Amino acid sequence: MVSHNEKRAEKNLIANNGDGDPLVLIETKDELEEADAIISAWRKK
């Protein structure tokens, strides 16, 4: 639908900060385990 919008503004998006870190998929059983995994990964950096 968006691509068919006649009033859509043309824009070119460019990232200026480089590639960054690769994405990582972590499966967790619940929100608490997810939070622990995120904090643990953050502390390792």
Number of helices: 1
Give, in order, the helices and strands: H
The beta-strand count equals 0
Q: What separation lies between the terminal Cα atoms?
A: 42 Å
Strand content: under 5%
Residue share in helices? Answer: 25-40%
What integer is the average pLDDT? 88
Describe the structure.
The chain has 45 residues and is mostly helical. Helix content is 31%, strand content 0%.
Describe the secondary structure blueprint for this structure:
Layout: H1 31-44
Kindly summarize this structure in a few lines.
This protein has one helix and no strands. With 45 residues, the protein is mainly alpha-helical.
List keywords for this structure.
45 residues; mainly alpha
